[in-house]
Write a structure and sequence with these properties.
Layout lengths: L2 H24 L8 H22 L5 H29 E4 L6 E4 L6 H9 L5 H7 L12 H43 L11
Antiparallel strand pairs: 1-2
Length: 197
């Protein structure tokens, strides 16, 4: 593999994850969801997408790359809204009133927690967990299988979001760069012929 392509790919993925004050890392699932895994796999898959696009890129497919970029952008926007809603639903800050750390709630409550929530409408996940004795009794509020399902949902939607953003940027870059290199070569990139009269 060409070292310049590898260096360029790693540089682009690094910039993508460092851009905007570490935005993509900042929205990663909480550490309880194994955020390092989500960020790491997102980075590696983004790099694979970049290399795939670079390998497939041809100057004559400029419009196809731009259309691909637009579709991936639409997917990224939809996934971003989905992920934000999922994140807000499946995470909570605990303990209430103290230094807060994000934790993962389950997708379903235990029967006892469901009954208590019905009797006390509007209670937050943190308040519900506190009622059942705190983090050490998390299993009394959400079954472990439910928490694992929430963890998988958060990680998979985050990875899809990162890949859609990265794919859109890479495809748009290929479309834009191929158009500038095509124009540059069409403007006399080769040797000039002498005029004959």
């Amino acid at each position: 593999m060409n070292r310049s392509i590898l260096a360029k790919g790693i540089e682009i993925v690094g910039v993508l994850f460092a851009a905007f004050g570490g935005f993509l890392i900042g929205i990663a699932p909480p550490q309880a969801a194994d955020a390092k895994f989500a960020v790491g796999i997102g980075s590696l898959l983004a790099l694979i997408i970049l290399f795939t696009i670079a390998a497939l890129a041809k100057k004559e497919y400029r419009n196809a790359w731009i259309i691909t970029a637009v579709w991936l952008f639409v997917i990224a926007v939809g996934t971003a809204y989905y992920y934000k809603g999922l994140y807000d639903t499946l995470t909570f800050e605990y303990p209430p009133g103290g230094i807060k750390v994000d934790h993962i709630a389950g997708t379903e409550l235990t029967q006892a927690a469901r009954d208590y929530r019905q009797q006390h409408e509007g209670i937050s996940n943190a308040q519900l967990l506190a009622k059942f004795g705190g983090l050490q009794n998390k299993g009394k509020v959400w079954p472990e299988i439910s928490v694992n399902k929430a963890r998988r949902k958060l990680i998979s939607s985050y990875v899809i979001l990162v890949l859609a953003i990265a794919g859109s940027i890479f495809a748009l870059t290929e479309g834009a760069l191929s158009s500038t290199s095509t124009r540059a070569s069409g403007r006399g990139g080769g040797a000039r012929r002498p005029r004959t009269s």
